[in-house]
Amino acid sequence: MYYGVRLGMKSREAWMEGMKNWEGKLPERMTDDQLEESFWDQFLQRKTAEAEPDDYVREIGRELLSFIQEDDEVLEIGPGWGNYTFAAASKARSLTCVDSSASVLGYLEQGARAKGLSNMSFVHAKWEEYEPPVHDVVFGVNCYYRMQAIDQAMVNMNNSARRLAVIGMTSGPEKPHYWDIHQQLGYKIKFSRRDYIHLTNLLYELGIDVNCNILPLQKTYVYESEEQFVSQNLSAIMEPSYDREKAEAILRQYLVWVDGKPAYVHQFKAALLYWKPERRISL
Predict the structure, then answer these.
(1) Dist. CA 16–CA 8, nearest whole Å
(2) Which residue has the higher pLDDT, 143 or 47?
(3) Do 270 and 170 meet the contact criterion of CB atoms below 8 Å apart?
(4) Helix (H, G, I), strand (E, B) or coil at 236
(5) Whose CB has fewer CB within 10 Å in the chain, the N or C terminal residue?
(6) 207 in Cβ contact with 281 (< 8 Å)
(7) What is the pLDDT of residues 179-221, one digit of tens each?
């Protein structure tokens, strides 16, 4: 059931189509739970030695914290390595983390102990299959990439949020040299296939009118060598053979130097979709 204009958008189908790779198949990580668990286990073993989050993560975090009040019981979906988790727990009365990865939850639990946070709890479950209790605020950032039952995931957010449900997604524009290469040389590029607008439309079809806050962000990628700068920034070209010299010439227009190292400054945006649930929804 939904309450808007009948546009026939079929947003869930569009979301699923965008989940496929460029060969038209679902990547293994989208369907193999053990493979996803192995990814997170290996990633988090490396993560312990890495630096602090990027500045743009802090900017998103500041906006997220503005939705949380000190007396709130908060639930976070798919916290990953905890970019927003500990700050939310430090502000709220309590924070429940729901994630399908046991490795993620173990990592966060260890982090909570190290930070002296005793108000956190952890639930090992897939969000779209979970029946969550009601919390004041329910949020998730960049955690929806693997959810095939995305409509049920949205319904669960709506039904479990007492005051606010908040969705965060980083968005485009993508690195501009790729668009230049596509336009000037006609090459196919592996552009992102899903964005916040898919979820906006899906929520509309579910009868949910969302507010949207767009955040301008910036990330600077620093490389160890010019060779690495070139290889990593041409990797999304899909052509089996192409004029590398021409593509590299376009790319080098965006080359800058940071502390003597080649770098790329990428300006992009994030979307925060948020709403106050008005009614329970069922599919």
Answers:
(1) 16
(2) 143
(3) yes
(4) coil
(5) N
(6) yes
(7) 999 999 999 999 998 999 999 999 999 999 999 999 999 999 9
